[in-house]
Amino acid sequence: MYKSKKVSDNKHSNWFEDWFNSSYYHILYKNRNCNEAEIFIDNLIAFLQPKKDALFLDLACGKGRHAIYLNKKNFKVTGIDLANESIAEASKFENESLSFFVHDMRKVFRINYFDYILNLFTSFGYFENEKDDFATINTICKALKPNGTFVFDFFNVQKVIANLVGTETLTIDNINFEITRYIENNFIVKQIIVTDGDKQFSFQERVKALTINDFEKYFAANKLKIVHLFGNYQLEKYDEYNSDRLIIIAKKE
């Protein structure tokens, strides 16, 4: 059983800027399952049945694996992310119907523009202040066209906490990653110590332990109506204790 750690006195507000722009972030996660991402997109498209001229926004797109595949299916896609390094990599795949921008998801990007906005692979819950969570959902609502669709993919907090792996060590490209996971002030924290030769660095990932009740509150405050819940990338029924994911489909009212 994990133990919650004492709340640190350090400020963590910019951890994502440091970590997501680090070369070590890309090394640690370089083997992410692209096949799984493509299956998820295929299942979403089969379920949503978007029109051929639908406009998609991939919010917090990282290096663009979802956006690039979605574009290959002949949809016009825009990807935005705060990390310069990720957008630089994603931009290599740009074309007339695929574009990427460095942008903070708390700030308005476009208004009444997109038919679909996707926020995938737990790309939310990074901010210490709940006002930033509300601001992000508000910008999503503003960017959607009336009756537009928001697809939100978050880890299932109950299952993550129940199966939290406290420590592990990985070696990738002769770089050592010592990873410690714990709960701190309602955040699921991953402390990452990187040893690269004679150099050592410390990074964190901090994701708020948000539940369906939290998202219902955020969405209702921003006129987003939840219309479907799924529990995995096969779009099977959501179970709060056993599902791997919390996938929400919401409509702009």
Structure description:
The protein is an alpha/beta fold. It folds into two domains: 172 residues, Vaccinia Virus protein VP39 (Rossmann fold); 49 residues, N-terminal domain of TfIIb (Single Sheet). It is built from eight helices and eleven strands. The strands form two sheets. The chain has a seven-stranded mixed sheet with strand order 3-2-1-4-5-11-10, with helices on both faces. α5 links the parallel β2 and β3. It is globular. The protein starts with 14 loop residues before the first helix and ends with a strand. The N terminus is likely disordered.
How are the secondary structure elements laid out?
Layout: H1 15-20, H2 23-28, H3 34-48, E1 55-59, H4 65-72, E2 76-81, H5 84-90, E3 98-102, E4 114-119, H6 130-143, E5 144-155, H7 157-162, E6 167-172, E7 175-184, E8 187-196, E9 199-208, H8 212-221, E10 224-230, E11 245-252
